[in-house]
Automatic annotation (TrEMBL):
It comes from Paenibacillus lemnae. InterPro entries: YycH, YycH/YycI_2. Residues 3-418 form the Regulatory protein YycH domain. The lineage of its organism: Bacteria, Bacillati, Bacillota, Bacilli, Bacillales. CDD domains: YycH_N. Signal peptide: none annotated. This is Regulatory protein YycH domain-containing protein.
Length: 428
């Protein structure tokens, strides 16, 4: 009799222990289990498509120097932009020689000579440029990041100069051997003869169009990636994630190691994984490839993107992708975090991942031609920018705004600041 009582009491204690363990795991105070078993996973449609590295690396614009101090500009998606870029990608560049930027008269070169400038923004590692251009291996040059490429010819000289500008200050590399002729440069430059004329600003930092620039304002139907989709994409076992609501209204989902913060008002997520090695050297080129592969495997690309910059800091690399539509960047605004996908990597491991949950359909609605001002009217708008703000570029862009399930893209002038950030001109 006594043995039966002991056995029953023991079984009761085991049962209590199991119940207590369940509540500790799935019902912590202030938290809620989101997915409790594999059977409760919500099957959804496939998320965004994967993308090749080569399709994410291209210049943000091209400056065409026509000679006689005349200039124009092309943007991604425009016919002449594509013609020029495809021809440049088909040429080879070899035998690089390092030079000092301050030893050359750039004002005279751009005003007197015909040429093409390809602007990549804040810099692209040479190892990545080699994936889209025929750049021969060079132990010294391959460690650089390039923010601009300049091809030009000088009257009376038989060769073409091919310059690659490093992000490391006062350094430029010239390809002693470039598979381009003076006639090639002349043909490329001729594409811009009848285009909108541009003039350098007074401080020679950026170009101003002398005529209005035509764009299209439009609306796109949108949808949202669900939190369940992102959980399945980012966590090894979504079944053990817990949900914690913050005071600011955002939601945090965690498996005890990684966390996914969701801002429902902005339809924006911030995923963090602190499990990277504590020390070591970073490699921007390798880290960009890792970042692209991470997005391919964890959510895909909700539109067209361009690698807009890499920033190396000690053992970390920040990688930024800018979303484009019809060849123009979509601004990331205080009212709607939509235009950027930002990642941070440490030792080849993604430790931070920020992106929008919004994705737009390609079916365009409410399309209208929109004229961005040029000439003196644009100079008036630029006049309101504070003197202590250093503008490095002037850029046509789209301001996004959300109206129910419609994404409106409104053409605006944006300025690129010294630190690489882009702001709407009228926001000053």
């Amino acid at each position: 009799m006594m043995e039966r009582i002991k056995t029953s009491f023991l079984a009761f204690l085991v049962l209590c222990s199991l119940i207590q363990s369940y509540f500790l795991i799935y019902r912590l105070p202030g938290s809620e289990s989101v997915v409790q078993s594999g059977n409760s996973y919500i099957e959804t449609d496939e998320m965004g498509p994967e993308e090749k590295t080569e399709n994410l690396i291209y210049p943000k614009n091209m400056v065409v120097h026509l000679g006689a101090d005349k200039h124009t500009m092309f943007y991604p998606g425009q016919m002449f932009y594509d013609l020029i870029y495809n021809r440049v990608k088909g040429r080879s560049f070899d035998s690089f020689q390092r030079r000092t930027v301050s030893n050359m008269d750039w004002s005279a070169l751009r005003s007197a000579n015909k040429g093409i400038e390809l602007n990549f923004g804040s810099g692209i590692p040479v190892t990545l440029l080699q994936r889209v251009m025929q750049i021969s291996p060079d132990s010294l040059f391959e460690g650089e990041s390039i923010h601009k490429m300049w091809l030009y010819s000088v009257d009376g000289e038989p060769k073409v100069h091919a310059l690659f500008f490093s992000t490391e200050g006062n350094v430029v590399y010239e390809a002693a051997q470039a598979d381009l002729t003076v006639q090639d440069i002349g043909q490329l430059v001729d594409f811009g003869q009848e285009w909108v004329p541009y003039t350098l600003s007074e401080d020679e930092s950026y170009y101003i169009p002398e005529q209005p620039v035509d764009m299209v304002s439009l609306e796109l139907t949108t949808d949202l990636y669900t939190v369940e989709q992102m959980q399945r994409s980012l966590f090894f076992d979504p079944g053990i994630t817990r949900n914690i609501r913050e005071r600011d209204g955002s939601e945090i989902y965690t498996d005890g190691k990684r966390s996914l913060q969701v801002d429902e008002s902005q339809h924006f997520i911030n995923y963090t994984d602190p499990a990277a090695p504590p020390s070591g050297e970073s490699n921007p080129g390798r880290d960009v490839l890792t970042a692209i592969n991470f997005v391919n495997q964890h959510g895909g690309w909700n539109g067209s993107y361009r690698l807009s910059g890499t920033l190396e800091s000690q053992d970390r690399t920040a990688v930024e992708f800018q979303q484009y539509y019809r060849g123009y960047p979509i601004l990331d605004t205080p009212g709607l975090n939509y235009g950027l996908m930002v990642m941070e990597l440490q030792q080849g491991t993604v430790t931070s991942y920020e992106r929008s949950l919004l994705h737009a359909e390609r079916q365009e609605q409410e399309k209208r031609i929109y004229n961005l001002p040029g000439g003196d009217r644009l100079r008036e708008l630029l006049g309101v920018v504070p003197e202590n703000v250093n503008i490095t570029a002037l850029q046509p862009a789209y301001r996004p705004s959300l109206q129910e399930d419609q994404l409106r893209l409104t053409p605006v002038w944006a300025v690129v600041l010294q630190d690489g950030t882009m702001k709407e001109l009228t926001s000053f």
